[in-house]
């Protein structure tokens, strides 16, 4: 039974159900609720997010509301961050979104448990996601991860002060500016050990460090400016 509670994320809900029955616990739903340490407060959209949820759902044809699953989970996770200081999705929140979309809870749980952008347990105020895929790895993601560890962050864990959670994730789509991290919804790119350290220190002081390239590039333009197509046509 302890292993059921200690697993961070399951490969599929079916696996969870299997393990739960193996542990001879009452039923899998009991396990899910206990595992996620659901908040006592009942979740409901804020007025602003209710409007936004309705707008998103209306983007899809009648009968295809389930297509709004991912943006609504993201919206719910953002609301959790605002209301509790931790961007995550307890079971009651997933159930709430599933009910609105008219789909079984387990189908939405499958989505939430597949993508690392959704957190199934509480995270710190700053969720530091270090990209460790090949382009970032070749450009120094090991140094970035080391900078995080040297500031007291531990992979897969929250810091005791509740400020940081450290995760290693796969490609976040900013390979041209590798190595990079995503912290909450912001990207920090062209990182070095020193710049990553500075960003973490700034966040810990309550500051908002500049996002994007840390060496002043505009988007993914070449370092030092353009090298081709620089002649002005006559
Ligand atoms: S490999 Fe890191 S952003 Fe693509």
Describe the structure.
This protein has 234 residues and is an alpha/beta fold. It is built from 10 helices and 5 strands; from the N terminus they run H-H-H-H-H-H-H-E-H-H-E-E-E-H-E. Helix 2 packs across helix 3 and helix 5 packs antiparallel against helix 6. The longest helix has 16 residues. The radius of gyration is 20 Å and the shape is globular. The termini are far apart. The N terminus is likely disordered. The site of FE2/S2 (inorganic) cluster (FES) has 11 residues, from helix 8. The site of FE2/S2 (inorganic) cluster has 11 residues, from helix 8.
Any descriptors?
single chain, 234 residues, alpha/beta, Glutaredoxin, 2 domains, five-stranded mixed β-sheet, 10 helices, binds FE2/S2 (inorganic) cluster
Spatial order of strands in the largest sheet:
2-1-3-4-5
Mass-distribution shape: globular
Mean pLDDT: 85
Helix content: 40-55%
How do you describe this structure in short?
This protein has 234 residues and is of the alpha/beta class. The chain has helices at 2-6, 13-22, 28-36, 47-57, 69-84, 91-101, 105-114, 134-138, 141-150, 193-204, and strands at residues 126-131, 164-169, 181-183, 186-189, 212-213.
Q: Which helices and strands appear, and what pairs or packs with what?
A:
Layout lengths: L1 H5 L6 H10 L5 H9 L10 H11 L11 H16 L6 H11 L3 H10 L11 E6 L2 H5 L2 H10 L13 E6 L11 E3 L2 E4 L3 H12 L7 E2 L21
Parallel strand pairs: 1-2, 4-5
Antiparallel strand pairs: 1-3, 3-4
Helix pairs in contact: 2-3, 4-5, 5-6, 6-7, 9-10
Bound molecules: FE2/S2 (inorganic) cluster (FES).
The site of FE2/S2 (inorganic) cluster has 11 residues, from α8.
């Amino acid at each position: 039974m302890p292993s059921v509670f200690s697993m961070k994320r399951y490969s599929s809900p079916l696996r969870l159900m299997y393990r739960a029955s193996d542990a001879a616990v009452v039923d899998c739903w009991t396990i899910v609720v206990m595992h996620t340490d659901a908040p006592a407060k009942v979740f409901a959209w804020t007025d602003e997010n209710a409007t936004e949820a309705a707008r998103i759902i209306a983007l899809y044809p009648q009968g295809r509301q389930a297509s709004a699953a991912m943006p609504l989970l993201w919206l719910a996770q953002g609301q959790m961050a605002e209301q509790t200081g931790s961007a995550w999705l307890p079971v009651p929140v997933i159930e709430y979104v599933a009910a609105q979309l008219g789909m079984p809870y387990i189908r939405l749980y499958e989505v939430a448990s597949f993508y690392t952008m959704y957190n199934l347990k509480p995270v710190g105020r700053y969720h530091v996601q270090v990209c460790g895929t090949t382009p970032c790895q070749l450009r120094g993601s090991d140094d970035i991860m080391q900078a995080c560890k040297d500031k007291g962050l531990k992979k897969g864990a929250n810091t005791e002060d509740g400020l940081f959670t450290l995760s290693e994730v796969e490609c976040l789509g900013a390979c041209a500016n590798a190595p990079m991290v995503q912290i909450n919804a912001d990207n920090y790119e062209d990182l070095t050990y020193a710049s990553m350290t500075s960003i973490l220190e700034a966040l810990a002081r309550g500051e908002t460090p500049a996002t994007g390239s840390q060496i002043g590039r505009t988007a993914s333009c070449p370092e030092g400016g353009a090298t081709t197509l620089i002649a002005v046509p006559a």
